[in-house]
Design brief:
The structure holds 2 protein chains of 2 kinds. By secondary structure, chain A is α/β, with parallel strands linked by helices. Chain A is built from 6 helices and 16 strands. Chain A is globular, with a radius of gyration of 18 Å. In chain A, about 50% of the residues are buried. The model of chain A has no long low-confidence stretch (mean pLDDT about 95). Chain B has a single domain, classed as TIM Barrel, CATH 3.20.20.70. In chain B, α7 crosses α9. Classes of the chains: A alpha/beta, B alpha/beta.
């Protein structure tokens, strides 16, 4: 993990309010694994907390981020120009586990949870895994779907039925009878909960990436915890830090009853 | 040039400490900051048994600040004494252990167990706005403050600093009560109680509804309170509340603080504490200040 200045190579809007940013950040690029994220800091110290954003893809010396404008910080990032710099901290978190070659993995992304799945799908494909990609969107404003095509078979679900399966990703997986022995996912909490329940009911393992409001990003402030079934070895209570023990968790470890949303 | 200061007989190489709850026990930040360069590390509040803390969301950004309602999650004293303090013992920095409790017995139980530890100083949190029992309920009533201070002083082998809440009508009354109870020093201020509402969901953003406001937004309030308290008690003060630069630290010292704690700024820049230490030295050179102690309480 490093705290440094990254230079902006490009920023462009690829769907309404969805931005694709390429950063030159050799240290982070060298270390980053699928499912990790970085924290980006605002230039305006009135906005003092870092914005955690998942890593979409990694290239030599470069890191690609795809994010949605959700407030001041992401708006500021979207307005960055080529050659400008941004202060970053990362890579942060555990990332997805490494899987045995040949194993079939279903990769699921919902909404702004789609970007981190791209680097994962690529790495799994390179590792010789059979990859099924399931992407859930609100409507026809698709993004990144074409990029996944080289790494596995892509299935699309939309909430409004405008493209692909009409409904959510769990319904699509059920309809297409996609394997759920091993599922890796990122997306909104209701999707992750539903997917974890379906996967577990079918005897599979779901590795889900969680999101929470964060402050320090390094595991000190205990702002971004998730409830767990067992007492955690670090906290000594039934809480794990999303920024440090996560953001990816084996869903069977988590206590969803404790999640208050 | 002298940058060292003394807090109740404990010498700090410089006046810069970390604010409790923002820096863990130093482990996580030690990859960004050389802890040996800091005057001291104030650890996250610890209680006799582990505390789970509040539901999430626990933090929210606000203009020039943030709200938190962590709820004093901590692993309890056993783990703290076996893991956290031994880690800190490797560094040449003053160890200030922040203690929290729900009841007087819990505070006393923790203080007693810390008597034989390597802690240099204790900071007693009687001001957390985010726990239902204890915390702020002790810190807002001068009679209670004097009573609990006296009880803790009766058993502590370490110097005791009482950490005060700004959520009171008259901070000087509370500070005098801590001094009357025998406190060796006073830390101020803890966070100001606040709230943020998510207008799209029409609900409070924090699961706890209210949270403690920190960051530059509260600095003028904190400076004012340090100034007022320094002029009505004789014990040393650790000043805190929105310090993000060496200039901010100097301002607190001129208001009357002997040392300062840097908290929320760690979240904006994990290296900030070390930068503040070097910034203070730079300021002293530029302003021809030979001894940092000469500026304590100098503001007219």
């Amino acid at each position: 993990m490093e705290y440094s200045k990254a230079s902006v190579v490009s920023v462009r809007e690829i769907a309404p309010s969805i931005y694709d940013m390429l950063l030159k950040a050799p240290g982070i690029a060298k270390e980053a694994r699928p499912g990790q994220f970085i924290c980006l800091y605002s230039e305006d110290s009135a906005h003092l907390l870092p914005r955690p954003i998942s890593i979409c893809e990694v290239f030599p010396d470069h890191v690609r981020l795809v994010f949605r404008i959700a407030g001041y910080g992401t708006k500021e990032l979207s307005l960055k120009k080529e050659g400008e710099t941004v202060t970053v901290l990362g890579p942060i978190g555990n990332g997805y586990p490494e899987f045995e070659s040949g194993k079939s993995i279903t990769v699921v992304g919902g909404g702004i949870g789609i970007p981190p799945m791209l680097y994962l799908a690529r790495k799994l494909h390179e590792n010789g895994n059979e990859v099924n990609v399931v992407l859930g969107y609100r409507d026809a404003g698709l993004f990144l779907n074409e990029a996944f095509a080289g790494y596995g078979k892509v299935y699309i679900a939309t909430d409004d039925g405008s493209v692909g399966y009409h409904g959510n990703v769990v319904g699509l997986i059920e309809t297409e009878k996609l394997p759920v022995d091993t599922v890796c996912a990122c997306g909104p909490m209701p999707m992750l909960k539903g997917l974890a329940a379906y996967t577990e009911a079918n005897g599979g393992k779901a590795y889900i990436s969680l999101e929470e409001r964060m402050a320090c990003g390094v595991g000190a402030c205990l702002g971004c915890i998730t409830k767990t079934k067992e007492t955690d070895g670090h906290s000594h209570v039934k809480n794990k830090r999303i920024c440090t023990e996560g953001p990816v968790f084996d869903s069977s470890e988590l206590d969803f009853g404790g999640a208050k949303r | 040039m002298n940058t060292s200061v003394s807090l109740a007989g404990v010498t700090l190489k410089n006046p810069v400490l970390t604010a409790s709850g923002t820096f863990g026990s130093g482990m996580e930040f030690s990859r960004f900051v050389d802890l040996n360069k800091l005057g001291g590390v104030v650890t996250k509040g610890v209680s006799v048994v582990p505390w789970e803390g509040n539901a999430t969301p626990r933090v929210a950004e606000t203009a020039s600040g943030m709200l938190n309602a962590i709820g004093l999650q901590n692993p309890g004293l056993d783990v703290f004494l076996e893991r956290d303090l031994p880690f800190l013992s490797k560094f040449d920095t003053v160890k200030v252990v922040n203690v929290c409790g729900h009841t007087e017995e819990e505070y006393l139980g923790a203080v007693e167990r810390l008597n034989d530890s390597i802690a240099d100083l204790l900071e007693i949190n009687i001001s957390c706005p985010n726990v239902k029992a204890g915390g702020i309920t002790f810190g807002t009533d001068p009679v209670m403050v004097e009573k609990i201070t006296k009880a803790i002083k009766g058993i502590s082998k370490k110097p005791v600093f009482m950490k005060l809440s700004p959520n009171v009508t008259d901070i000087t009354e509370i500070a005098r009560a801590a001094e009357a109870g025998g406190a060796d020093g006073i830390s101020l201020i803890n966070t100001l109680m606040g709230m943020k509402i998510d207008i799209l969901r029409r609900k409070c953003l924090l699961a706890n509804k209210t949270g403690g406001l920190s960051g530059p937004a509260i600095k003028p309030v904190a400076v004012r309170m340090v100034y007022q308290v320094s002029r009505c008690v004789n014990v040393p003060l650790i000043g805190m509340g929105g310090i993000a630069s060496a200039e901010d630290a100097i301002e607190f010292m001129m208001a009357g603080a002997t040392a300062v704690s840097v908290g929320t700024a760690n979240f904006h820049n994990p290296r900030v504490t070390e930068e503040i230490v070097s910034g203070i030295e730079r300021f002293m050179k530029e302003q021809h200040i030979e001894d940092i102690r000469d500026i304590i309480g100098c503001a007219e």
